[in-house]
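Onboarding guide, step 5: your first structure request.
Type a short instruction followed by the sequence, for example:

Predict the 3D structure of this protein.
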Amino acid sequence: MTQKNKFTPYIWIISIVIPVVVAILFTVRIPNVASLSFLPPIYATVNGITSVILLLALNAIKNKNIKLHENLMKTAIALSLAFLLMYVAYHMTSDSTPYGGEGFIRYGYFFILISHIILSIGIIPMVLFTYVRAFTKQFEDHKKIARYTFPIWLYVAVTGVIVYFMISPYYI
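The system replies with structure tokens like these:
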């Protein structure tokens, strides 16, 4: 079994467990906890920073600065994990905020939100497979999948910020 294949079952387990656990945690409410209402602008900022980090990492690899690229990508993964933890903590302690916009903008909001959610689930195995291919020094395979992983991950990070700005006027 190649190193790449040795990680495959773990990647799929993680890629299934994370969305399932997040969905389950969305049904859990922790009562009598200090308000975490300060988190949405923080995790939106984390998404924004992730977007910038991804663009910097792309620039680094185009300039053959492999070590900088590697460090930036590890940072982007860590930021995405931090976002997920804050997002879940907020939703375990707060009710969801309904979107109050009307008309065309409402349809735009829900299109962005739904595509963001679906792609945020799909990006998990893509990021992990892309990372493992680099980690195992299978750089040709890494480049092949990174070509698709990068724009989807960037879309998820950017739309996370857009969703925040669109819903922020409706936070209580």
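Each response can be followed by summary notes, for example: The two ends are 53 Å apart (CA to CA).
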